[in-house]
Amino acid sequence: MKHILKMVLLLTLTIVGNTTVYAQKSHQNTLSLDGTWQIIFDKDNQSRANKTYKNSNFLAHKDIRNIEVPSVWERIEKDYEGVAVYRRTFNAPIEWQNKIAHISFDAVNYRAEVYLNDHVVGVHEGGFTPFSFRVDSMLNFDKENVLTLRVLGPILLDTDKVIDGMGAMETPQWRGGITGGIWQSVRVVVTDKSYISDVYVQPDLANQSANVTVSATNYDVYDSENIVDIEIREHQSDKLIVTKQINTTFTPGKNSLTTDIVIPNAKAWSPDSPNLYDIRVNINRNNALSDSVSERFGLREFTVKDKRFHLNGDEIYVKSVFLEGVYPVGVATPVDMELARKEIKLAKEAGFNMIRPWRRPPPPQWLDLADEMGVLVIGSPALECMDLPVNTPDLPKRVVSEIGKTIKRDRNRASIVMWELYNEVRRPILKQMMQETSMMARDLDPSRLILDESGGWAFGAKVFLPNEKNFVSFNDVHTYPGPNMTNAWFDKFLGVGYTKEEREAFGIKGKPIGHNLKPGVTSFVSELGYGSYVDFDKVNKRFSEQGNPIVPPTRYHKQLGSQLNKVLQSDLADIYKTPQEFFTEQQEIHGKANARMIEATRLNPNVTGYCVHALTGGDWIMGAGLLDLWRDPKPQVYERTKAANQPRILSIRTFPYSAYAGENVEVLVQGVNDLKSVKGTLHVVVSDSAGKQVWQSKKEINFAARISTLLEHSIDTSTLSGKYIVDAKVTDKHGNTIADYTYDFNVFATSKDNNIGTFALADQTGNLRAFLSDNQISFSDFNDNTSIDTPVVVAMASKPNKKQKTLNKQLKAFANKGGIVTYIQFPYIGPKWKSGVLSKGSAVHMPLSIKMKASTGLWAGMSHVVSDHPVFNNLPVNKAMQGIYENVRPKISMVDLKAKPIVTLVANDNFPDMTLMKRHYKGTGDVWVGSDLSEVDFGKGKLILSTMQIVPNLGKDPVADTLLINILSYITNR
Known about the structure:
Layout: H1 2-16, E1 26-27, E2 30-32, E3 35-42, H2 55-60, E4 65-69, E5 83-90, E6 100-105, E7 111-116, E8 119-125, E9 131-134, E10 145-152, E11 186-191, E12 194-204, E13 209-218, E14 224-234, E15 240-250, E16 253-262, E17 277-285, E18 288-297, E19 302-305, E20 308-311, E21 314-315, E22 318-323, H3 337-349, E23 354-357, H4 364-373, E24 376-379, H5 395-410, E25 416-420, H6 428-444, E26 449-451, E27 462-464, E28 472-478, H7 487-494, H8 500-506, E29 522-528, H9 536-546, H10 552-571, H11 579-602, E30 607-612, H12 635-645, E31 648-655, E32 658-660, E33 665-673, E34 678-688, E35 693-703, E36 706-715, E37 722-731, E38 737-748, E39 760-763, H13 767-774, E40 780-781, E41 792-795, H14 803-816, E42 820-825, E43 828-829, E44 833-834, E45 837-838, E46 841-843, E47 851-854, E48 863-866, E49 879-880, E50 892-895, E51 901-908, E52 927-938, E53 941-946, H15 958-972
Parallel strand pairs: 22-23, 22-30, 23-24, 24-25, 25-26, 28-29, 29-30, 32-38, 39-40, 39-41, 41-42, 42-53
Antiparallel strand pairs: 1-18, 2-11, 3-4, 3-5, 5-10, 6-9, 6-11, 7-8, 7-10, 12-13, 13-16, 14-15, 14-17, 17-18, 19-20, 20-21, 26-27, 27-28, 31-33, 33-36, 34-35, 34-37, 37-38, 43-46, 44-45, 46-47, 47-50, 48-49, 48-51, 50-52, 51-52, 52-53
Helix pairs in contact: 3-4, 5-6, 7-11, 9-10, 11-12
């Protein structure tokens, strides 16, 4: 007996030392099969017919290559989609005879057919969760063992390919989850006949205990008497806390036992104190160790109470950030876990307490770090919805499988506090499955919050509290306003959770952001943010030194970097001396937008958290990141977002942002305080752009917990003109700054000297005519008798109508003869989604064909760069539109005009071929240049075309007024 125990111990020490140990079901006696394997890429799908998975046939193949496991096969075969056959050998020690052996895979994407020594082992479908097969009867003990896998990877880009009945986008995959082959670890697990298949720990913080369920299989043909030993240790100190021994009988087949274990002096797990416990379960039979499994867990409770998130009984305001899960070299996983450690560290340092890995379960090593470093995590399966994966008869079973396996894999994780099952559901089959899968999730894991759908597109989001099967209504909101957080957009954030009557009573204008909102319920803005380019020169230099040239991240970074540099050198060299100037400006706009969205969210008392999109970018979402793909911060984005995340912040709003001289500007200073109330002094100073003070205030305040209004003041602008800065800060009794904030507003002095000559008007909106009349600007109505020397100003209704056809014929003839026609507003049909395809927009009822593209930005940065031109007299030029241009900044831009833009739009396609099907993996589309203001030759005349939002803002925003006056002056004084 001593000899046997010594042998088992030796096996443990010599084999486990070479094993990648994960917290998830870490068996004691394992043999790692990570390392160098062989692979044959079966491009013509002949491996099944040719039985390539048989050892002799494999070795006879002429195209055998080496591949490291774990890794994605795209690292050695560019963009490979289809089938590959893997092979490796290993030796089984003679001591394994009469033992039970399993081959365990942490994840193989997507379908894995497993063979051992030319014997069929089994098949598994699903690319992101673990599986195992019993193989002891197939092992060789006198010669090497040959393990082969025929793997069918996901089909994503080759839309005509169908393999084994599986076509493009039919499997659950999403962005950072695109991985082919054996991309996580493999091992052999050796036990006696009592095998532990699962250890599930449900923490009970209130009672300082853990409910432990041990699932085991008795591979004997008779009942067996077993002693189950459970020990719990503090993870950090390895201090033994408690032990428990249970005598039990296992019948042949599957068995389960459940017990409660009190944990003396229990320490709760939280982001500030990530206290972890190790639990080891040993099964002894016949006085010998049969199996031993270790897990890691934490004691914590995350729930909703009084419409707020609570962690361990205390209210917590959730500050979350997306993680796209794309890495520069490993693609799906970092080749060095220090990169993962760095991204979590930077997220915490930026003030985030939660990470939302985007639509695929992170690798176990990443979750190990999340547990250890202390960050809340939203768990979600590899399901995006939003029409993906595509509808097939297999969709329901694949959805159920992904949800169930993901929860079972990660339900012991201290960091995972909530399951998010779906995202933005549109399809009937998934809508009707939501309740079913929520109940399945509840049965698998009673202890966590369950969110049925992020975004609430189907019916409005619902959450299920721990241990509850009855749902609670929940507002889960997604919004991407672009860079312009105007007062109107700010109010949309403030309106979440209120009735229409309540919004009117509070002075909150317009409808709130979100789908299917309900008043008076817990609200979470789970998607917000903007985007900007990384410093491509710096990032691509690192790719050239350390990257893999064939993987998509290297390629699409190189593509965008080179294309942007070409555009900046050819189109905008007179504005940006270096590409870095352009990237820095974009990042400033991105950072300001993120911060403003966070402020608006935090100032709504109905909202209990938010999620910024995203910590890192990747694929077609790469612009959203606070960090580049190498996990280096984009400084302006990271620092401004970090500032907005701080426990105590100030926010300033001015009404309006751009004022007419003589119009009072209302200044509102508010505070958000996640900590205890503190007394302090509020200092507010208003200065002009030269630093001269216009107004100041100093008063003692109570910086109250949650939300407070600290100052409301009206500024007389009758003697003001230009840009003004509002500086606010709160100091404590020692003069230390508790919180500070800087904001600006603009005042426009009116001028009667507009230097406008004769022009004719064709206005279908009424806005332009009314503005001209109100400002006593004379004009004539355009008709067939209008002189060819009289420029024409046109404002058509944005929505196409029949009257525009007649007007278009007149204007086209007028320009052809030599006239100047200026379109301040014209009709267009915007891009629309239909059956997974994004159509291209186009102008209609116009003298020439004009293609249109959306250019707000959403999660991607789009720069509308203003040249120095008479149209922009008295306005900022040689820079991208921001701030003062907030209301007139275009939402849609013209492309392929044969004229140099006066306002140049620089962007790239998010959907390379405009289809939903291909917004995956290979990255973004090409850089494109658009125009928001151009002067185009047409016949003997000219067309001046603008997509700026001037007409809707006339008389409301002095910037719109100024632009119109400048345009009229420009065309009438040529």
